[in-house]
Amino acid sequence: MCSTAFPLGAAWPLLVGAEVRTDRIDDLGFYHNVRGRRISTTSLADVRETKRAGYAELRWQPVERLPLTGGGRIDHYRFRALALIGAATSGATSDTIITPKTGAAFTLARGVAPTPITAKASTRTTRAGCSPQPTRCRGWCAAQATRSGPESSDVR
Questions:
Q1: Residue 89 belongs to what domain range?
Q2: What are 29-72's pLDDT values in tens digits?
Q3: How crowded is residue 148: how many other Cβ atoms within 10 Å of its Cβ?
Q4: Apex CA 109: angle with CA 107 and CA 111, to 5°?
Q5: Considering its fold, how many domains does the chain have in total?
Q6: Average confidence score pLDDT of the chain
Q7: I want to staple 3 with a disulfide (CB 3.0 to 4.6 A). Which of 17, 55, 66, 138 is the partner?
C-alpha cells in the first residue's frame, strides 16, 4: 500500500493512495477424514484472489477550529478457481465496492477536540473514534479512556 499527499494550496491538502494484493492458494481442498487421517479427496482447486484499490481524501478548513474532509475509496476484487480433482468447479468472478467518505471535527478549545463525526456510505462497519492524527486529540482521548476504562470506552 502506498499513499502520497499533494498540497493544492495551503488550505486544500489532498491525500491519494493505492493498494494491490494477490493471494495464491494452491491445492485448496476438501478431504474425507476419519479420526484425523485423510481417506480421500472430495475436491481440490487452485485459487487466486486479486485486490486493487485506490483512494483519495481532500481536507478543507473553512475556519480555524473546523476541518472538513471528503473523499472515497474504490476496491475491485477478482476471484478465480481452477478445478483439479473431484467436485471442485472452475470459474471466475469479480466485484467492486465504492465507499464515499465525509467528515468534520470541531475543536472546542486549543488541544481539546471531541470525537470527529465521520460518515461512510458502505457495507463496512465503522466506529467513531479519535482522529487518525493522534496529536489532535491525544489529551481528550487519553482522558476518556482513563475515566471510562477500556471495557466501556468507545475510544481505542
A1: 1-104
A2: 888 899 989 899 899 999 999 999 999 999 988 888 888 999 99
A3: 12
A4: 80
A5: 2
A6: 75
A7: 17
